[in-house]
Amino acid sequence: MPELIDGLEIRHYRLPLDPPFLASWDPNPRRTFTNTVVRVRAGDYEGVGSGDAMLGFPGHEHLFIGQDPFQIERHVRVLDNLQFHYGRMWPLEVALWDLMGQMTGQPLWKLLGGRSPRVPLYASCGERKPAAERAESARVLQAAGFPALKLRFHDADVRRDLAVVAATRAAVGPDMHILVDANQGWRMPWDAAPPWDFKTALWVADALAELGVFWLEEPLHRHDYAGLAELRRRARVRLAGGEGNREFSELGQYLQHGSFDVYQPDVVWSTGILRARQIAQAVQAAGAIYSPHTWGDGLVLLANLHVCAAVSTAPFIEFPFDPPTWTPERRDFILPQPLFPSGPGFIDLSEAPGLGVRIAWEALEPLRIETGTLKAN
Q1: Which of 56, 79, 323, 349 is the Cys-Cys partner for 89 at CB 3.0 to 4.6 Å?
Q2: What is the number of other CB atoms lying within 10 angstroms of the CB of residue 335?
């Protein structure tokens, strides 16, 4: 008789940030970092996942209690139903996959395909910094062995953002790839500004091509499938996107239109693990790159890294890292140990079962809060 799911719990934690993190996508300094962790049990086994606050989930535990954890196709359909009504529910699917890994004694990357435990990384920067300071930080990342780094646009005058890219290119020379996130695909709740129009996006793409940029993310709204396809046809730089599209059919629209060179649906933000593997296979069969968005906590990063280790052939995968204010110690505070590269520009995932970590629940208790929603600063 297989072990059935007999426990499901959602916990929230908040880490104070001093000094604050000056996120490029938010003018309000981030003085706290809030995490939601889903904990699912079957007998003596436990799986964990993290991500969105799961605010619509309480009251639906009965849909999973008493079920076989390995019936993942069924669980994904139920989670998709819940997502339609409430919001992203994929942290629970990650926890179920972790649970399956614990029960079988296999790491998740092997359960999903087992291509290689080694994942190449790029350093993903997230803070607002002036050109000279960003250029110096790029030199440090290059010296640490990262083959690429990502810069995020944020200025109302795009020419100032381009100046940061130019300074970074001058600092690192031609041998380090630069990726640029335009952040036009979605907006923060307070931001009513329209995204770039087509000609602005094309003008920026041409300017970035002159600076040898490897890819440009989200230069148009996420639902402008035809506009992105036309921009991809005319631009001299690769286009990337899809990090936050919640409906699997939306990602299919990108493929149908040929919108991107690089597909970035986040396992926890966008697809879940089962569908991440499906979209990765379809993307790579179409000759494009699958390199998902991973910005979140350590469990979010691990979920994406395990999928990539199983199926992705991308030249590099996102590793959020922008010291001194965005470090593995801050990013991964819910983990027993933060995740660092195993060597210059790569990380080797372990043979430990599931995601490869066990949460030290008692150590986190001082940071536990009642809700996963953010408070005003």
Answers
A1: 79
A2: 24
Per-residue pLDDT band for 375 (boundaries 50, 70, 90) equals very low
**What CATH class is the domain 110-348?**
alpha beta
Q: Are 298 and 332 in contact (CB under 8 A)?
A: yes
Task: Give bridge partners of residue 13 from the DSSP assignment.
Answer: 35, 368
Ranges in the chain annotated CATH 3.20.20.120: 110-348
Report yes or no: 295 and 126 within 8 Å, Cβ to Cβ: yes
Task: Cite the residue boundaries of each domain of the chain with CATH code 3.30.390.10.
Answer: 7-106
The pTM (predicted TM-score) of the whole model is 0.96
Rounded CA separation 142/164 (Å): 16
Confidence of residue 131 (pLDDT cuts 50, 70, 90): very high
Q: What span, in angstroms and rounded, lies between the C-alpha atoms of 293 and 244?
A: 8
CB 47 within 8 A of CB 77: no
- Identify the band that residue 371 occupies on the pLDDT scale cut at 50, 70 and 90: confident
> 80 phi and psi, to 5 degrees?
-65, -40
**Confidence category of residue 372, pLDDT binned at 50, 70, 90:** confident
Contact yes or no for 336/358 (Cβ under 8 A): yes
DSSP E strands, 166-300: 177-181, 215-217, 238-241, 262-263, 289-290
Task: Indicate the fold that domain 7-106 takes in CATH.
Answer: Enolase-like; domain 1 (3.30.390)
Chain mean pLDDT for the chain: 96
Q: Identify the burial level of 78 via C-beta atoms within 10 angstroms of its C-beta, where 0-12 means exposed, 13-18 middle and 19 or more buried.
A: middle
CB atoms within 10 A of CB 217: 24
